[in-house]
Amino acid sequence: MGFIAESFRTALSLIFSADQDVFAAVRTSVGVAAWSVLLAAVFGIPVGLGVGVNQFPLKRVVIVVLNSLMAMPTVVLGLLVYGLVSRQGPLGGRGLLFTPNAMVIGQTLLAVPIVANYTLSVIKGADSRIVPTALTLGAGSLRSMMQLTREVRFGIMAAVIAGFGRVISEVGVAMMLGGNIRWYTRTMTTAIALETSKGEFAFGLALGIILMVVSFSINILLTFMQESHQP
Amino acid sequence: MKSRYAAGLLALLLTCSFAAAQERLRMSTTTSTENTGLLNVLLPPFEKECGCKVDVIAVGTGKALKLGEAGDVDVVLVHARSLEDKFMANGFGVNRRDVMYNDFVIIGPANDPAHMKGAKTAVDALRRIAAAQAVFISRGDESGTHVKEKEIWSAAGISPAGRWYRSIGQGMGEAIMMATEERAYTLSDRGTYNAFAGPKTDLVILFEGEKGLFNPYGVIAVNPKKFPHVRYDLAMKFVDFITGPTGQAIIGQYQMAGKPVFFLYKAR
Fold first, then answer.
1. Which whole number is the average pLDDT over B158-165?
2. Quick one: which of A12, A121, A154, B255 has the most CB atoms within 10 Å?
């Protein structure tokens, strides 16, 4: 009991004292997650749309692969990217390892399958006459895809929210590729891991409470925007 | 209309980007220097002096050296002389300097179920733990502490195995916390133990003071001939700082709960 209560007290005092370390970790967490989700949307939504709308051989195989990629263990993904961006890897010359950019690469790869799959299932549920109708009305194929995207935008928003939730709560990739560097690549989740390793459980839980508040509020905000769009 | 809010929010989130570009020195080091809090007082004066940022990657000594061998860091601060010598011999590092030392201690529950308190040597102490099959937590992560532990086991002629010997592959802090929960023994550097003793762990030092438990820390710049991209000048500035008067004074004065954590070489 005392432990939990102390955590809440610590969390409150950290928030109200605008603690520098906490602020930096929140900023890194949110910044990396936002960039990753933006990039994941740029790559994932077209993949979901393309697979969802078009008929092509091996379509089922592609869908199964996309689904399986959602279960990608984060440490494996982290290791793969680590191998790519380490000085000995193919992209080593850029010195990406242990920078926020490396984290963004890893988290983007993590979020793309999620965004693509959500988009795909939204398309499956959408009115299958949208694209043919648009084409009949004289729209080009790009225009009719845009129209489809407009029709399912709430579902796509949900895809982005799911990706964001995955990325901001993730610790394996952030630790491996970021290296938990104070004021630079330390995120809320790696900070919690560090405090736990120092035996500062109450402080770790306090950070956990702040992380929950931050990620819940962003999700609530996104959901609110999504619903206020609804016709 | 509403999409303007969405765009605004997105822009706001994306501006949560990262610290401005500045020269960054990348250092891999052991969990003990980070967990004791020494770096938090040692690095700010250096960063001010050089106008740079030091990126600290705190891992076990084995991994810290591996990062140097891959050219992923510019300087390493570690404690496992045998591994350091190999690192130097293979040409990955230049200018190894002694920085400071502390020592290893064997900690365990105060009631000492393995009766190792009367042990004369560290080897004898671990033998008694093995004989009693008392739970022993091993770092198991190729850290300096783990390397030292393996040295003692092999000197004792024991290859520890069984349910009592738990290799956890985690940092010193985790090992101490697990030993506390399990009422187990473990080998710790004195600095990290001091940082945990009191509110975080009730384990006590049951064996200490042997010469073989000496724990020297060294700093090594990564060889610029091997990795042209490393910030060698900056790394050497750091080496000079940490072994120079300012750095040494900070290390010597650093205390936790009124006890010194690291000791300086008197010769300097």
1. 93
2. A121
Kindly list the domain boundaries of chain A, sorted by start residue: 2-229
Q: How far apart are CA B17 and CA B235, in angstroms?
A: 27
Alpha helices in A54-126 (DSSP H): 59-69, 74-85, 100-125
pLDDT one-digit tens code per residue, A27-58: 999 999 999 999 999 999 999 999 998 889 99
The Cα A195–Cα B130 span in angstroms is 32
B267 found inside a domain: no
Q: Are residues B192 and B145 in the same domain?
A: yes
Is B174 a domain residue?
yes
The verdict on A86 touching B (C-beta cutoff 8 Å) is yes
The phi, psi pair for A62, rounded to 5°, reads -60, -40
Number of domains in chain B: 2
Structure tokens at B77: 């601060």
Give pLDDT tens digits for B189-218: 998 998 888 888 999 999 998 988 999 999
Residue range B183-192: average pLDDT? 94
Give the whole-angstrom CA distance, residue A175 versus residue B77.
20
**Residue where a domain terminates, one of B213, B228, B249:** B213
Amino acid at B233: D
Which residue range(s) make up the domain with B59? Answer: 21-101+216-260
Find out if CATH 3.40.50.1000 is the number for domain A2-229.
no
Distance CA B254, CA B106 (A): 23
Lowest mean pLDDT, pick from A108-122, A189-203, B90-104: A189-203
The pLDDT score that the predictor gives to residue B18 is 55
Q: What is the DSSP letter of A176?
A: I
Q: Best of A19, A28, A82, A87 to disrupt the B interface by mutation (most B CBs within 10 Å)?
A: A87
B contacts of A27 (beta carbons < 8 Å): 16
Task: Tell me: pLDDT of B69 over 60.
Answer: yes
Q: Bridge-partner residues for B56, per DSSP?
A: B27
Q: Tokens 């990062």 identify what position?
A: B67
